[in-house]
Design goal:
The complex is a heterodimer. Chain A is mostly helical. In chain A, 65% of the residues lie in helices and 0% in strands. Chain B is an alpha/beta fold. Classes of the chains: A mainly alpha, B alpha/beta.
Chain lengths: 163, 192
């Protein structure tokens, strides 16, 4: 008979199929194999306890749990990124405010130093400065007549700094 | 208030500009750039002291010797005083025009000096050979010399940092040794 040539597992599946379809002669053409039936047959023919259905379910559960944990951590990481971005934006804003406040404070200090320097060097207060006045022109070459044409600014400052 | 770019010019730049030495063209470009288009110069008292000291030395040393009497000494002192006063006058005028700020660090003196000491000790320079006199322009017998950053170099950079300068510019290549330590995204050190 044809069936006798099939391995026991397929015979098992075939019998299952026949039972499902209301039986049939062993001489009739073989119905197609069902995947689910094959899975079940494989499980029944397994002999090792480690490869039993309960172990497979445990591993599957672990995977599901880990997947959930990964999802949760990704969500937390995303929230942290948004929080950091918000803090950085705030930090930049505060730095700008600080710089503006510092500039105002610097202006105040600078004005005080102007008064001090003019007092030390016995200079008259000249305010307001004419709009077309260019103080840089008055500085350019101020002591060029006292240059020895050899020593440059780096050497002169090194001498002053003791280098 | 618009963003202002603060530039701390080392004393070498100021001296080049008033002396018109070999760096004068660079100094002119720098000073023009630093006082317009949203830029502002920072000058510290240390800058002013160093420049006035150079004025004193240059005027005295370049005056032809006619004798060491009270008249000649007073003449030199008057020349020094005139040049110094013009320098300070023009600096204060630039400050009044809001193109320059005359400011010093707000750090407590003890912390300021402690930082200077720490950086000075941590940055030993190099021992080199010297066998040429650039003033006499002739060969000399070889001798050792020490090249390194001095405490005042360090203090200028500290001043620039403390006054929130964006840029520190100098003609002194010795500052390259400090670039690695101080050059950050907040303060750029430019050695020209």
């Amino acid at each position: 008979m044809v069936l006798n040539r099939h391995p026991p597992i397929l015979k098992d599946i075939h019998n299952q199929n026949n039972n499902n379809s209301g039986g049939g002669s062993s001489n009739s053409p073989q119905p197609p194999l069902h995947v689910e039936g094959l899975k079940g047959a494989l499980q029944r023919h397994k002999t090792s306890p480690q490869t039993s259905g309960s172990s497979f379910n445990n591993a599957r559960s672990k995977v599901v749990v880990l997947e959930q944990k990964v999802d949760n951590l990704n969500h937390v990481a995303q929230m942290q990124k948004m929080l950091i971005h918000g803090l950085q934006t705030k930090c930049t804003f505060l730095e700008d405010c600080l710089k503006k406040d510092k500039t105002l404070a610097f202006k105040e200090d600078s004005d005080n130093n102007i008064t001090l320097l003019r007092a030390f060097f016995d200079l008259k207060q000249t305010s307001p400065i004419p709009a077309d006045s260019e103080p840089l022109e008055g500085l350019k070459g101020l002591i060029k007549d006292f240059s020895d044409k050899k020593t440059d600014s780096v050497d002169l400052i090194r001498q002053v700094r003791g280098g | 208030m618009d963003k202002i770019h603060l530039i701390y010019l080392d004393s070498t730049v100021w001296v080049s500009y008033i002396l018109e030495d070999r760096h004068k063209d660079k100094a002119t470009v720098l000073l023009q750039r630093a006082t317009r288009d949203g830029n502002k110069i920072i000058v510290s008292t240390l800058n002013l002291l160093e420049v006035v000291e150079v004025i004193r030395k240059r005027v005295a040393e370049d005056t032809s010797f006619v004798g060491i009497d009270e008249v000649s000494k007073q003449a030199i002192a008057n020349k020094i005083s005139d040049a110094s006063r013009v320098f300070i006058q023009k600096i204060t005028e630039l400050a009044q025009q809001d193109r320059l700020l005359i400011i010093d660090p707000s750090t407590a003196l003890s912390d300021y000096l402690s930082s200077t000491l720490q950086l000075f000790v941590a940055n030993f320079g190099v021992i080199d050979k010297s066998d040429y006199c650039f003033i006499c322009e002739k060969q000399t017998r070889p001798r050792y010399r020490y090249l390194g950053v001095g405490p005042h170099d360090i203090q200028h950079i500290m001043n620039a940092k403390d006054c929130s300068a964006n840029e520190f510019i100098t003609f002194d290549k010795g500052f390259l040794r400090l670039k690695n330590i101080f050059d950050t995204d907040k303060l750029t050190i430019t050695v020209q």
